[in-house]
Amino acid sequence: MKAQTLTYPLLGWFFGLVVATVGVLNLVLVHPVPGIAYLLLSLVYLPPANAYLKRHLGFAIPMVVKIALAIVLFMFTLGVSDLGDMLDKALI
Fold first, then answer.
1. pLDDT-derived band of residue 81, with 50, 70 and 90 as boundaries?
2. HEC states along the chain?
3. pTM here?
4. With contact defined as beta carbons under 8 Å apart, do 78 and 84 qualify?
């Protein structure tokens, strides 16, 4: 049980920082609008934001929703966004 209580916050910080990094890259390289959207969506994964939601609004976003959102975000980022095209050109 102790490993599970440590794993969820670490995964939250990891995915939150990854989405925030994609947001900063979009902000600098592509356009401010998707960059700001990604930065706001990164708050979904961060444990302090989750604790804030639970404390002040009485609910927290379920892990299943967070995982589904992460899959959609990364498919969108690498598939149809300008940032994905820039990464493809840089790797070739």
1. low
2. CHHHHHHHHHHHHHHHHHHHHHHHHHHHHHCHHHHHHHHHHHCCCCHHHHHHHHHHCCCCCCHHHHHHHHHHHHHHHHHCCHHHHHHHHHHC
3. 0.75
4. yes
CA distance linking residue 16 with residue 24, whole number of Å: 12
pLDDT of residue 60: 83
CA distance 30 to 7: 33
- Tally of domains in the chain: 1
Domain span at residue 12 reads 2-91
In angstroms, the CA 28 to CA 39 distance is: 12
Among the residue ranges 16-20, 26-30, 34-38, 74-78, the one predicted with the least confidence is 74-78
